[in-house]
Amino acid sequence: MPQITMAVATNVTEVRVELSTIEIAQEQIEDQEKQRLFGVIPNFYVSYVQNAAPLTPKQKFQLAWKSTVDPVSFGVTAAVAGVQQTTNTFGGYGQGAQGYGKRYGAAYGDLVTGTYIGGAILPSLLKQDPRYFYKGTGSVRSRALYAIANSVICKGDNGHWQPNYSGIAGSLASGAISNLYYPAADRSDAALMFENTLIGIGETAAVNLLQEFVMRKFTPNLPNYEQTTP
Fold first, then answer.
1. Are strands 153-155 and 132-133 parallel, antiparallel or unpaired?
2. Do residues 110 and 137 lie in contact, with contact meaning Cβ atoms separated by under 8 Å?
3. 112-169-54-125 Cα dihedral, nearest 10 degrees
4. Is 46 helix (H, G, I), strand (E, B) or coil?
5. Which of 115, 160, 163, 178 stands 20 to 30 A from 132 (CA)?
6. pLDDT grade for 159, boundaries at 50, 70 and 90
């Protein structure tokens, strides 16, 4: 008796689960928050992923919060206030515990206003990324020029390079706010604020050079992402 064989077609369904850009950014920023120079000093504002996902406003504020409430930040502020007390910087605050408390409050106020205005508020409004993006490749000269240029330019949330309005305006705004709590004799006029901002740009360039050539070597447990566009 002949046998009849029927072929039954089978459907194979492939399910791919991909993270959204926001989820990728959150994963990357959580890894950034583990970056510490010598395993201790926060090194949160550098991305070792050149094509990292853009941050949402919430994530920019998260990074600012994490930076300003880190125990090391409080310790550094205490040391700065101690040096100012010893050298009688901002003499209008006086000496003793009260003078030290005022210096500590002013130093911490500078940290908070600078970080939030230049690293969260303005970057959110202007859609700019407050991080330094490590280059790590190319000649020493190209990397040095890249690091210096990043003191006045930044990456936008759209991935394009643009003038760093957030950082520059943030420095000016922070200086203006500091006049509310510094002694009258130590307050800055408009000319001095612009001068301090230019000095700040130079300091940022110096820090960027250290980020590009030095700090990576002393920052353990760096993320090892595959260099692909989210």
1. unpaired
2. no
3. 90
4. strand
5. 178
6. very high
